[in-house]
Write a structure and sequence with these properties.
With 235 residues, the protein is an alpha/beta fold. The protein is 30% helix and 25% strand. The relative contact order is 0.17. Ribulose-5-phosphate binds next to helix 2 and helix 4.
Length: 235
Amino acid sequence: MLKTDELKESAARAALDLVTDGMRLGLGTGSTAARFVAALGEQVAKGLNVVCVPTSEATRAQAERLGIPLTTLDETPQLDLTVDGADEIDDRLRMIKGGGGALLREKIVATASDRMVVIVDESKLVTALGLFPLPVEVVRFGLMATMRLIEAIAAETGCHGAITLRPGPGDAPFVTDQGNLMLDCAFGNIPEPEVLAFSLKRVPGVVEHGLFLGLADLAIVAGKGGVRALRRAGA
Ligand code: 5RP
């Protein structure tokens, strides 16, 4: 196993310690979250009783294969705990997510949860958000106008860089589970994430963006020195 894979596995297994019988769980998306789902599946096979809401069709398929009981936010609108990965996370547990294209469902599920725990290898820790291109989910209608508006409001908050439509299979664009498109904004540095997050929500064509602010309560970070927990101040 590659070193990074081992670290993802360690973070995922550490998060399993937070799961107790009877919990309602949100299941994240991505390679780290998939390791948590796999470990959870082992426990369910041994008799652990949980019910879960997946944040993507990929996670749903994995959970179904493992026999993990699933529900929806319509049936179960409040969850105890969501465990998910991140593309970048800073020391205030502010994150960029959406590299895997599932940010909308991820944000809905995390917001419906009493706690969000983020599992990462230490390469995801940053001092300032923005090196990872910020994913922004947009509707198809008015795409060019939406891109121009995002560029303009981002510049007002000190963010500059190429905004590109995420490619999908062949010549087609990437399409999210919700049937939307994804933009990747290579800002390099986001000086004021809260201001940018607020501004992006004012663009009508923006469905949601990948800035997850004030959502994570705990980060489980696996590194060469072992696994450590970072708590959000006040969480
Ligand atoms: C998916 C996400 C993922 O959590 C993020 O991309 C991290 O993925 P990985 O664990 O594979 O690095 O936000 O939309």
